[in-house]
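Re: the request from the purification team.
They wanted to know what the chain is likely to look like in 3D before they choose a buffer screen. I agreed to run a prediction and write the result into the notebook, where they can find it.
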Amino acid sequence: MEVTSSSNGGHSSFSSFRVYLTSLSATPSRLSRRAISVSTSSDEMSRLRALSGEHMRRTLRWYDLIGLGIGGMVGAGVFVTTGRASRLYAGPSIVVSYAVAGLCALLSAFCYTEFAVHLPVAGGAFSYIRVTFGEFPAFFTGANLIMDYVMSNAAVSRSFTAYLGPAFGVSTSKWRFVVTALPDGFNEIDPVAVLVVLAVTVVISCSTRESSKVNMIMTAFHIAFIVFVIVMGFLKGDSKNLIFPAKKEHPSGFFPFGAAGVFNGAAMVYLSYIGYDAVSTLAEEVENPVKDIPVGVSGSVAIVTVLYCLMAVSMSMLLPYDLIDPEAPFSAAFRGSDGWEWVTKVVGIGASFGILTSLLVAMLGQARYMCVIGRSRVVPVWFAKIHPNTSTPVNASTFLGIFTAALALFTDLNVLLNLVSIGTLFVFYMVANALIFRRYVPVGPTKPWPTLSFLTLFSITSLVFTLIWKLASQGSLKAFMLGASAVVAIAIVLIFQCVVPQANKPELWGVPFMPWTPCVSIFLNIFLLGSLDAPSYVRFGFFSGLIVLVYLFYGVHATSDAEANGSFVVKDGQVLKELTEV
């Protein structure tokens, strides 16, 4: 049963409480029609974009994207992740772990790049999944990603005081105050974190181009500090530390924990590459998407990989791996050394710049995700509005900025860190699947089951490999089961490649070595999802439940109204022509 609003003759499920209750009775039929309804590329680039009113200005070039990509990836976390992965898993071979993780990040970035070139809109992964798998899968993944962004940004803003204060000899406790009436984990009030978030919100709301300039300046300072730390490590370090541990009873050599240590280390440090996905949400503001996006995304991942590998070598030369402080490897290496204490302050200042750049890029990305979800009507279209003077999604930026600031005000860093990562990895997994589906399933009425069956079988095989890697005891049986799983996965890909031909080859820019490249990304993200702790899955389940409720009680009805009003009915567009005219 559909409901008609008497005010304008259009369909509305929210004109009154009685009408809304009547609409709820139509939820099953609406759900069956809307949940897997796919959008079209022309729809995303024309009618839906028009819902924002003003267009975002195309002012970004490839060098802006490289700067934003580097700023988004190289945050303060790398100073911690490097030491933890080296001490616990890889030893000096942490440099190989970073190289492996960088290669995998590049493969995943290729999947984003192909979509962003052919669909240069602000929605990023949300739009890619919506034009492939439908409305509900897109909202489910996009909303989870936004929650991850908000939690991560709140955590990053609180770490700003933790790094900047000690760099100037000021204790973190001086910047915060305790409210005893609040429970532990929520009782340390951090007003500086709130000010940082609100300041970044103002910057990204004013102008994307100006935000890019601010990011360029801060990223330049941050890289300068990183290069300084790398140089100091090479000058003060000793190449013997790459081979010999401090204690003879510990494993020695460049690969003290073998191949398993390298890959376990890669799984941990891969999270240091998260951030390039935010660059894809800026595709709508890029002057020449076909040329600028591949260079910007891939170039930023390549540069960051080189920086990370050099940092890893530098740190491994400073101290034997079994003496590295997993929480503050660089600062601890210089602390206590005569005449070198000042280097720890440089590390703190450099990390502070990294915090600001990663926060700026992430908040740019989260606002654009919310903007395009608003265009789809799954959330109120108010979020989709573009300000006529700034050409930025001010509504989405302000709402998420205030939400992030509220969390950053009182929520402890450790509480927040237990809530991040899983949504981002899940989106990477979905984008890789979507790319294979788009390439191998013909447009129009056709049977997608061969491709869907392949994606399901490959995911199951990757999951089996991950469970064996994580749970099975060391020994020949584990090695055999891992080898068997790998052979089965490779066989599945080979059979699919031989039996199912590509139906849609890209005309502008395409991922090479299909379907192997996205398959590696699928495997990697499943492997990394298996490395996350239980609280991450509790968070994922809780927020996923909220997302489903929002869709059932609001989203599916709002999009059904839009469909009934003709908002989703579009003429066939020439997307290629639009791109070449940009």
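For the purification team: The chain is about 65% helix and 0% strand.
Please add any questions underneath this entry.
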